[in-house]
Design brief:
The protein has 7 helices and 2 strands. The protein is mainly α.
Length: 125
């Protein structure tokens, strides 16, 4: 869950200029975990809708409503014939700069805010 991901980032060994977590948005972030992330300067990115698979479906143009995480995962893995994991090969074949730029430049796209925030983070690194 979100608390575990944030605690893992806090306790991850190493001297880093930046730390971040990318987590699903289907579970609320406990207030103490949010405060801990702020205190340790950890950026939190949340996928919308619900989970990574929901975000990827929407990025790829899925127009249907995604009611919950289970549905998002089921739709995504079935559509792309994957076995419960998004592979590097899938990313290489489906996500490119042109797609990301299109989303970033379309303020009405439901993924625009998340992708802009991620882009801003990586552009500053």
């Amino acid at each position: 869950g979100p608390k575990s991901a944030i605690l893992h980032a806090i306790n991850y060994y190493g001297d880093y200029d930046f730390k971040s977590v990318f987590i699903d948005s289907d579970l609320p972030i406990p207030p103490e975990a949010k405060r801990a992330a702020i205190n340790h300067r950890i950026d939190i990115f949340q996928s919308r809708p619900h989970c990574l698979e929901g975000l990827l479906l929407k990025m790829m143009g899925h127009n249907g409503e995604i009611m919950n995480t289970a549905l998002a995962k089921e739709l995504f893995y079935k559509k792309y014939d994957l076995a419960n994991v998004v592979t590097q090969q899938w990313y290489d074949e489906n996500i490119d700069v042109m797609l990301l730029d299109t989303i970033i430049n379309d303020n009405k796209h439901c993924c625009c805010d998340v992708i802009k925030k991620l882009h801003g983070f990586f552009a500053s690194v």
